[in-house]
Amino acid sequence: MEIIREVALLRRRVEEEKQCGRSVGLVPTMGALHAGHVSLIDRARKENDIVVVSVFVNPTQFNNPEDLRTYPRTEEADCEKMINAGVDIAFIPSVEEVYPEPDTREFNLGPVAEVMEGAMRPGHFNGVAQIVSKLFAMVQPHRAYFGEKDFQQIAVIRRMVQLEDFDLEIIDCPIMRENDGLAMSSRNVRLTPSQRAIAPAIHKTLVASLDFAKSHTIAETKQYVIDEINAQPEMEVEYYEIVDSLTMQPIANWSDSDCPVGCITVYCGQVRLIDNIKYTK
Ligand code: AMP
Predict the structure, then answer these.
(1) Dist CA 222 CA 126 (whole Å)
(2) Which of 119, 146, 118 is nearest to 132 (CA)?
């Protein structure tokens, strides 16, 4: 595996591979890699000749400085995981390399970016669009891989791709979970043992809500999920919205969407956990 830290070298190496007719898959990450990330890498490995993984804790998408400061950084372990997963190029740049000048671009991301994460974390999705558009421009991959754990993020990235006319395929990959159902996340290491023990209640409640939803309205189902999770010690729901999976807009009736998805954010102590579930009809 090549570790590349400079943009110019990255561009050159990827260009050389493409000149030889090889297809390129990109997996953007913020490091602290876990099996969720590895599932994206595995998929990219199957579908492309060359797999590029970026490891970059992007400051412009953090609206909370404390979250940025304490975000886990584990480069050595990440490299080992990337080597084992068969990554060809690990792009691990410094902040100065990616942003030699402050990025002042404001993307017109529209309604998909205004609700849920967009409402709770002002500037977050603009920061995501900044870094992902830079990575797409640097690598110009044939395919880029994203996890459905960050369900709204995928909709935002699709919108950015449309705005910027990037010629690539966005591939969404299913959520990887721990054995007890907790969605894998780099932030899980910050949970105390008692919080870690209670955190699977999020997924359990979402699964239980699939059955509940068969005989209840959207409003009742939302309330059920919020009450169940808030009843757990140390847990507080920030939002639970049931939205259309394409527009990300909240729906009022089950019949308003062909594929409703419930998106949740829960504070477990200080740790913000995110998850979602699809309500198939
Ligand atoms: P992050 O490093 O948290 O920015 O995540 C990098 C990519 O991995 C994003 O596309 C995430 O959606 C994806 N990802 C993170 N956790 C999981 C998971 N548990 N299952 C699948 N994909 C994930």
Answers:
(1) 28
(2) 146
Query: How far is the C-alpha of 242 from the C-alpha of 219, rounded, in Å?
Result: 9
Which stretches of the chain score pLDDT less than 70?
281
Q: What's the chain's Rg over C-alpha atoms?
A: 19
Q: What is the torsional sign of CA 177, 62, 190, 57? A: positive
Cα separations in angstroms, 89 against 75, 83, 195, 259? 14, 9, 36, 36
Side chain identity at 31, as an amino acid letter? G
Distance CA 169, CA 171 (A): 6
User: 157 and 146 in contact (C-beta within 8 Å)?
Assistant: yes
| pLDDT tens digits, 238-263 | 999 999 999 999 999 999 999 999 99
- How remote is the C-alpha of 192 from its chain's centroid? 23
Catalytic residue among 37, 124, 142, 203: 37
Residue 136 CA to ligand 1 center (angstroms) comes to 17
Q: Find out whether the beta carbon of 25 lies less than 6 Å from any atom of ligand 1.
A: no
**DSSP result, 129-167:** HHHHHHHHHHH--SEEEEEGGGHHHHHHHHHHHHHHT--
pTM, entire model: 0.97
- 3-state SS class at 51: strand
Instruction: Give the residue, by CA position, lying nearest to ligand 1 atom 5.
Output: 29
Write down the residue that tokens 């044939």 correspond to.
142
Residue 264 main-chain phi, psi, to 5 deg: -130, 150
